[in-house]
Hints:
By secondary structure, the chain is an alpha+beta fold. The protein folds into two domains: 1-20 and 231-256; 22-229, no CATH class. The protein is built from three helices and twelve strands. Strands 1-2-3-10-9-6-5-4-11-12 form a ten-stranded antiparallel β-sheet, with no helix packed on it. A two-stranded antiparallel sheet has the order 7-8. Helix 1 (3-19) runs antiparallel to helix 3. The radius of gyration is 22 Å and the shape is globular.
Amino acid sequence: MNTDKLVTILAAAGFFFMSLNAWAYTIDDNYTGASPTGSGWQGADVIGYAGYFDSDRIEVTYNGSWIYIDVYSRYLDNIGQFQTELGDLFLATGGWNPYGDQPYVNDNYNNTGTNWNYALVLDNHLPGAGQISGSFELFSFDQGSPVLSWAPAGYIYRDGQLVQFQPDANAAALAVGLWSINNLGGQDEDDHLRFALNYSFGEIPELAIHWAMSCGNDVVEGSVPAAPVPEPATVLILGSGLLGLGSLRKRQRKTT
Length: 256
C-alpha cells in the first residue's frame, strides 16, 4: 500500500474516532412563559424591544466529558440596560415538563412540572465594558435558593421566572467552569453566551435547560438528549481497524 495513502486513511480514521464523542443539538426559542406585569404583553415572546432582549436559541455540544452550552441572545450587547443583569443557567436532569401546551404562556417557576436541580452560577452578573469571560460554579438546588425575575419599580417585566441562584454561605461547588461572551459587535443575532463544563450527570433521560436575563423579558427553555455513550462494539471495531492498518504498514516496510 502506498505510504501516503496509508497515512491519509489513518488520519481519517483518527478524526472519525474523535467524532464518536461529539454530538450537537439545538433548542429553538419556542417557549414564552408567564407572567408579564403589563396586561398588554400577555402571550408575547419578548417583552419590550426585541433588539434589547430577544433570545433565539440554545445550542448544546457534547465532546467527550465536556458539555458546551451556547445561549444566543441579543441581550448580550445590552447587558445592564434598564438595570438588568445576566442570568445564571439552570439544568434539570429528570426531564422537561413545562405547564400547559407550547408556547407555554402560563408556565413559571411556581407551577412548572420541571424539577430544576442544578444551577451554573456566574462569578459576575454585570460584567463591565470589555469583560467577556469569567468562571461559574455548579451547585445543586439543595445548596441554595433560586432568585426569580425582577425589575425596578415602574418597569414591565416577566414575573415568576427563574433567573439567578444564591448559594448558601458554606456551599461547596460541585464543579467550576468557564463562561464567555462571543461575537459581540456587528449583527446581534450571532452573539452568544457560552458555558463550558467538564462534569458528568450520570445516566439521565434528557437534559432540560433554562436561561433568561434578570427581568425575564425573553426566556429560552427546552431539552436535549443526554450525552450519548459510544457503543463498545463500535469502538472495538474501529480500534481493531487501526491496529490492522498499523500492522500492514510494518509488513510493508519489511518488504520494501
